[in-house]
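Quarterly update from the structural biology core.
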Amino acid sequence: MEMPLYFKQFFLDNDTTWYHSIARALSSIQGTFGTIPKAHLIGLNSMRIHDLWKMKEDRDYNPPGGPEIGSMIMLDRNLDFPTVLASQLTYEGLIAECFGIKTGVVKFEKNVTSQDAPLTLSLNSTDKVFAEIRGMHITGVFPLLSSKARQLQSGYDKKDNLSSVSDFKQFVSEDLKELKSQHKSLALHIGACEAIMNKKTEGSFEDVLAIEQAMFEDTQYKDSLNFVETCIQRQSPYLNCLRMMSLLSVCKGGIDSKTYKSLRTQFLHSFGFHHMTSFKKFKEAGLINETNDKRNLFPKSRKKFNLIPKSPEAASKGPVPKDLSYVFGGAYTPFLVKIVEQLLTKPYIGGVEEIFKSLQIPATEYKAGTSARQTQSNFKPSQMALKTVLVVFIGGCTHTEINALRFIGNQLRYRFIILTTAIVTGEEFLQSFLV
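Predicted structure, tokenized:
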């Protein structure tokens, strides 16, 4: 929906204007695909938007015919900060972090294309190479592209074995065009991979990942704290310092007052006292907290939903991952996507409320009734509809979460339609608070 400021405007400014925009978007989807018979609402924000939508819907046109979407899962962003703050490790996520993706379009510079003029590329599944690698862990992308390059060369070598004019004509009119298209795509994505690796190795990326994993697991706290302090003292990009401080806070369940004040003082000395307001905003949003902030759900959800794999190696980083946590290299399972997986695979006797009661997360389940326009027979979802789920992120999501949803969609044979207020990186998410 391209509303990158939604989270800040609602959670900090208490501006509910965008509620109506989201409700209208849901009405538009339902007008196209038919009444959505069931909804799981996870978070207070989601419940309020759903109530407004249903209130407006009573006055709006009620679409006839059977539904094409079997259910909807609506999730609040503030239930899961670690996923949006952590370094993305899927190819598409790293493209977003290193080059920026706006409305599905990326601009590649000379370091990727080897051309002086920048190239604007639309990232979608019509590009067969991108469709195959977009959700892969970055460690598996380059070997796959190398393999495809060898296959491509074999395709070109076919011309040496052609003997008749008709064979040459077919090769030139059909095969050669496809080979040139793949050649161009491969060259771009190999160039992008090289640029990503060059950029990440410059910034001690492996050290960052090791510290992030320790934060997820709530181990080696002193090492994590020392790393954050070193980033501040070396004047690393200030958004990256804020990102690491926020991740440390939400994974730990808050920072003790003495450490919080020390980090704040060091940061202000390094980057300027105009950032006093930044700390105020981050504290209000629940990103950088002092100990015992009840809004911080991660320490409890980490245990209840088994978000930290017992064996990170079990999550394959190759072309065929085995576990949802592969998107973070086996270090962590994105919480909101884990909720989606659980709702689709585990029927809960007490309803959705029981799952989240111990975490004090507002949640409910809504089932639509039939109207005078809709008989029981045409309201009943088809088998295809039952396997089609609308997932709504209130407050934004990352490309990594979208990649993770594609993974469980393939695993469980579900088709996901994703609606989000914005697709963001960690730094873009934090930057929205500073506007």
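The CA atoms of residues 374 and 384 lie 19 Å apart.
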